[in-house]
Predict the structure.
Amino acid sequence: MISVVDSSPASAINETTQEEPSTQIVEVNKEDTPSRMIVRTGDIVTYCFRPDTEQKKTIQIVKGQTQPSMGIININAPLAQAFLGAMVGDEVDVLLPTGQKLAVIKNIAQALIE
């Protein structure tokens, strides 16, 4: 993964030299990132229900309208409420219209924009 880091002061142009601020590319290793990210609004979450842990599903939790056919659910939906604050590997109880289920968080992709 590559991140861009602005190494200049807060101003957009250096007033002394009138040059553009310098930018450097910093490579971020997996070891440098938090291994236990929590589910937040905007995140894309891959999960499965027990006992069928091979059948994975992916959803994005949003503040806007639920669009189940696109895998988008509102933060107030029972599934989203159960997942918020959970981490990869967590097992969470979800109360769905079809009954109580146990879901396992398989992956969390942190959102860039909510």
